[in-house]
Queue: 3 jobs
Job 1
Amino acid sequence: MTQIHTIDLKFLKIAEIISIYAVRTSDDGFVLLESGPASTLKRLEKGLAKCGLSLDNLKAIFVTHVHLDHSGGAGTLARRTGCPIYVHPRGARHLSDPTKLLTSAERVYGKMMTPLWGKTEPTPQDLVRSVDSGEVIEIDGTSIHAWHTPGHASHHVAWQIGDAIATGDVGGVCFSGSSHVLPPMPPPDIDIESWLRSITLMRELKPKKLLLTHFGAFEDPQSHFEDLERRIRRWTEVAEDTLASGGSPNDLARKLEEMDTGELKAGGAGFLTIQRYRKLCPMNDNATGLFRYVSRRTNV
């Protein structure tokens, strides 16, 4: 049975915000599902040490997509260990040359760029491995299946190991002790139709466990997917109605936050839990990405 360790990167010194997964492939060898941002690499090493693992035995990293909270530390780890980084073909160029990615992020985060994400280094091109959907990578007898799962990002990959799937952001955001699943929808390339197809694909794999980056492992995948899909469809309806009535992204953000806060409270979530969802998945970002999607689709 494959041994999978959940590692809390304690992003911004806050527990249960970003998790990555160390999968043992041999007695001392392992691969990582996500790298996390470069700012959390020291906490990654501490987390690995608690599991009896060392970066000296890192065999590969499998990133779901190239957003900095998921893959920002991959270049540094590749340079240090010589391990390959597996990624969607559309994301590969951003690993080997993150200039465009970082420029875009700097416009959003400004002076907080380094405190949040650290120094994102390019991955040596010969260590970047593009994967096709359905491709199987074998490492020390462990099989890792790649599944292209666009929706949150066009270059998104879900990674399947046995009956577990690392869902990245296409599997939504959910916190321990809660069954409330939020779809993170930042611009620029949210695609609802693709997202729903990706959920169908993951459902059909019949996993027994979901490994979320935000946050942790969940063992009721079908209920999780049902809640995620229901919320995606409902939010899209609200966005379409807002656009049709001449509303703005700010109007949409207000509607979504009011609706979602009500649902969280009805489900028993307290103030701190609600704040955790808002910190990780800001409704203004969700509304901006979703409003852009429905606007573009309406104008086609």
Job 2
Amino acid sequence: MGRSAPFFLRHGGDMLEEKIKRVLEEFRTDSKGTASPQELRNKYFGRKNGMVTLLMKELQLVPPAEKPVAGKQVNELKLALEAELDGLEAGSASQALAERLQAERVDVTLPGNRRPIGHSHPLTLVRSEIEDIFSSMGYWVEDGPEIETTFYNFEALNIPEHHPARDSQDTFYISDTLLLRTHTSPVQIRTMQKQRPPLRIICPGKVYRRDNPDATHSPAFQQIEGLAVDESLTFRDFKGTLEYFLKAFFSQKTKVRFRPSYFAFTEPSAEVDISCIFCAGVGCRVCKTSGWIEVLGAGMVDPAVFRYVDYDPEKYTGFAFGLGIERFAMLKYSVNNIQYFYESDLRFLEQF
């Protein structure tokens, strides 16, 4: 027994038009309901059971003479429903966008969310203040590499090969001739090589030494070294410059004293102390009851250093000094541990 034809085909051509009409009416009813455009597309154009899809499959059973008319009617239904679905999808997308914009609407009249405003690090504040004081005296800032040669870091500063300062226990060596600079004094040598006197410079920057981290030591810290070279500069000029700087940085009531010392690149050399800023020189735990606090080392430039940069030591004299920025920051802000400056603890940093 052969395969039977679909219902509407078994009852004549008029039934095809009725089937198409019923599908179209059902679609219009569905499109006015709660079904989404995607649900409608699945119902009418699904690959297996879509109502229009089934109609198109059943066209295979239509007699050849009737196929052109039947095919045209089903195709017109297909195009009509697809056009309707496209319109529904566009409207749905537009409505979804409008709802999203409404939900995400920003009231521009409301105050914004204020973020906390950052500020300079305490070491940066101290460095800037020191630079400003020396700039007011006619000094300018010079910079140099943090990876240095042994010539600039030691030899040109009159530090011989077997000097204790060159020991590998104190210095980070990269090779036999390269190292992380242990002070910023090499910048002074580099500047003197490229410029003739008169010269007044300060050289701030990071330096590195093999120190174990504790309350007063760090393997990486910051220094500012200064140099003045001219004809007829004397120890009196040297003392006057440093007294002016220290009183400007701490207070005009600060007392300053110079104690004889030794540095390889200065002669004579001095340790510079200030009256204790915590007890006004009376004596306390910070100054170890002495009333004085050591703050920097300095001295007149050794003539041997001038020979490395082709300065005539018979014509020029100069003085040099060096200080630790952390040391000055600890005194200025009454901080008892150098590590606080490098721990990035906002509870500490927000106090400045």
Job 3
Amino acid sequence: MKTLNVDVAVIGGGTAGLGAYRAAKAHTDSVVMIEGGPYGTTCARVGCMPSKLLIAAAESVHQIEKAPAFGVHPQGEIVINGREVMDRVKRERDRFVGFVLEGVDEIPSQDKISGYAKFIDNNTLTVDDHTQITAKRIVIATGSRPAYPAVWNELGDRLIINDDVFNWDDLPSSVAVFGPGVIGLELGQALKRLGVEVVMFGLGGQVGPLTDPAVMAYADKAFNEEFYLDADVRLESMKRIGDAVEIQYLDKDGEFKVITVDYVLAATGRRPNVDKLAIENTSLELDERGVPVADHFTLQTSAENIFIAGDASNQLPLLHEAADQGRIAGDNAGRFPDIRAGLRRSKISAVFSDPQIAMVGETYKEITTRLGNCGCFETGEVSFENQGRSRVMLRNKGMLHVYGEHGTGRFLGAEMMGPNAEHLAHLLAWAHQNKMTVAEMLDMPFYHPVIEEGVRTALRDLNAKLHLGPEMIKHCLDCGPGC
């Protein structure tokens, strides 16, 4: 078996691993990166980029279907060629993966080790049966994988995960989506708009990542206007019959239903890839999910020489978070023992459904858990149903809740479903990271007519409820009509 002695070993070659490798190399040339699967990152291969390609195709169909409401009547039947849809998705997906691989190719071959790593102790790793590495510091950046009940494996190739969708050559006739989270909502709605019959099921009533009950209820209603969604289904049975899956369940009225679908899409969450690292051979302290506990700002675990980053850290499984965490963990592994707190940005997340869902800063659940029932915060609200620019574009669905602290007037966070929520969330995230008060945010410029005026309406409502500004004016003449 080959033996290596290095300063830093990075386990994983995805977004976090690549970031950690490059950050560590700024301090030492003695760095290796271990990867057991294909390079290309989850985002580029099976995550954010291919899903947005599918969503873009679905949005083009939706715009044609909406055209008659503007007095524009496309001639003839809308024909969706599933093979052409999936061909573009795969071609563009491969293009994005290619960009990542170009960066990987620039890494010296001696720094890349192929295989799956396991811990022997806090400083020693074996890679498959060919290499043993002694590393002064180690970064765990092994990512995550889809998680679903093991019994579903009885469905064979009729059970798919999001990875499988992007390998389709054509679109199926019907899909049952289990899990109305980010992945389930995005793919389920896109497939529905592309002509696939879709039903969606969940457990516990959760819709998307939302925690605000009012915003979640609105989202549940909005999605149900487009396809059947039961966020707390009473499932009776699910079994494979030939090349299909039969699902028996009680609907929302308690009536027994039997449906048959081509595929079951498991979008029931993701599991950090730390269970096959033999971490029991280390001194790492683990949380209730078996994930190493790490400092939020340094990404250092309970073992001072081991750091963790990205989806494997079980913090916020998003690409920009993985990139930030990778840089912090790699930098600290490289400069150890002179570790430093890295910049952790305000939280921002989005679901690219229609309307979009977005969350910024502290969630409603986090605020209520932290502050309890002390009456220390208020919620400002706006509906997009009568918001001027939204109605002009016939995109007038959704609501925005913004949260502010009594006394200080500080903006705490927001949850929303609405048009262009991805852009509204960025404005609010910048304000949150700068620790702005609601009054300071209201001093910022707002053009007319734009969807962003809805943010101002919600902030004015919040400012009034915090007793820091005047009561809301129903028809604000300084804003122009429909704001």
